[in-house]
Amino acid sequence: MESNEIRNKFLKFFESRGHKIIPSASLVPEGDISVLFTTAGMQQFKEYYSAPLNAIRDFGAKNVVTVQKCIRTGDIDEVGDATHLSFFEMLGNFSFGGYGRQEAITYAYEFITHELGLTISFVTIYKGEGIVPKDEESRNIWKDIDSNLDIREDGADVFWGPTGNSGPCGPTTEIYCKNANGEDVEIWNIVFNEYFCDGSREKLDKGEAKLSKLETLGIDTGMGFERLLAIAEGKKNVYDTDVFNSENTREDRIIADHIKASLFIISDGVIPGNTGRGYVLRRLIRRAVRFSKEPLANKIETIKNLYKGIYNLDDEKEIEKEEKKFRETLEHGMKEFEKGHDAFTLFTTYGFPLELTLELAKEKGIEIDVEDFNKKIAEHQKLSQTASVGMFKGGLANHNEQTIRLHTAHHLLLAALQTIINKDIKQRGSNITEERLRMDFLCDHKLTDEEKKKVEDWVNEKIKLGLNVVRREMPLIEAQKLGAEMEFGAKYPDVVSVYFIGDSPKSDLGANAKEKKSLSPTSGNHVSIEFCGGPHVKNTRELSEFKIQKEEAVAAGIRRIKAVLV
Ligand code: GLY
């Protein structure tokens, strides 16, 4: 059976049983900033388990079905075996107060046995722990369906969630089928979201988070698409299915998996970087490069073709750029690696990530002193932190160049809103990643398209003007007199750091301290003054085109803008 046929079969099966088909969410989670990537189908629906009526408001339905793109890199070392992938699709049906265990289990059984003609090898149920009882109800439902079925009890593995820092979670029942090697593979996880956990899964496992009962039982199921395909197509591993191009060696499989994951991540707007999502992407591309003697171009093309008409995968240029850089790094670093193996020097001078050094060392049977590396890194970080005390307070998640540009754009945006919309607009929260900036601000109405356009134009005009961005330390009182923008609720010392955009070029404070003192910040024609620790670009010319991606409400009287530099 072809992959697309199974995707459609799944969606249609649940559609005909009262589910609304919802498109896959982005791999970059929208609502939940505590997770880097979308790792499960339920993530885009998290809020509905606590507020089921909102599902009716948003989807006109209590039950929905999706084929969700997912990234999981926790098991990256196992990628290349028969079942592990860093990018995969997940088939899932979800209910927010529409149905419970009986329907969820029956639908799954019917789909697996009647629609796909597969044989279930066994199922699991939760054995109970703490306030969560043994799942006798699921056992009885399975028994009624098939009295000969092998039903096994399990513990922590069959309690699912929450994702991120808190959220719905609950006991599960899993379905296992045999693959062509005769091994049992878990293919479907049916979660009964009956609890809300006030901490992460890690905290829950350590006894540091609490469960409380949700008012409404929710259903969340996840079926790994590639694993299912392998079984349905009678293949021995996921790389032999038609969402791959039959990769034979472990190396080829890793390359194919990593390129695929990278293409999907890039298509959702992430670029390689040194932190967060950008770093995961960089690591995937670099690993692919490392395992591949050939340029990646051919494989990239093959993978794009496999998904033609199903997913739009573009921007492979980002992979090729990173590949080029990293092949050069590799060449230099490898020479250094052969000479000695100081992981810290390899990292700081040659850009060798620790895991790469460790992988190389493992292949060559060499020991690396990780403790020494960690110690040196900690010292290194302490030094750079001391150099930037007080910086990055204003919601910056990390420090790379794009983040710094977005930080400056953030100041321009606030000034634009005050100039175009209302001079009294105040900022109420901000967050900047290397991909976008986000600003919450007080405003009593939804911005019109015309207003958004005017704000964009204003910011872009200031970018084009090439205005200097200047930092000055001054007494708090003086800064207040100038009307510098303050962070809401922040307490400031007597002497503060203030950033001016558009001050006259001659007051650029790059010079010596004496000159700094004698310059008047008011001499220039600035468009923005903010209390801020920086860092910022030196001149607005360093920013590319500013674009508002989204404008929405976050609470009564508070709007949120997400914007990018394209
Ligand atoms: N949310 C269910 C799963 O990912 O297995």
From TrEMBL:
* GO molecular function list: alanine-tRNA ligase activity; aminoacyl-tRNA deacylase activity; ATP binding; tRNA binding
* Keywords, in A-Z order: Aminoacyl-tRNA synthetase, ATP-binding, Ligase, Nucleotide-binding, Protein biosynthesis, RNA-binding, tRNA-binding
Task: Report the SMART domains cross-referenced here.
Answer: tRNA_SAD
Q: Name one GO biological process term.
A: alanyl-tRNA aminoacylation
Identify the GO cellular component terms for this protein.
cytoplasm
Pinpoint the Alanyl-transfer RNA synthetases family profile domain residues. Answer: 1-566
> Which EC number(s) are documented for this chain?
6.1.1.7
Q: Which PANTHER family match?
A: ALANINE--TRNA LIGASE, CYTOPLASMIC, ALANYL-TRNA SYNTHETASE
Family designation:
Belongs to the class-II aminoacyl-tRNA synthetase family.
- This protein is called alanine--tRNA ligase
Q: Which organism is it from?
A: Candidatus Nomurabacteria bacterium GW2011_GWA2_40_9
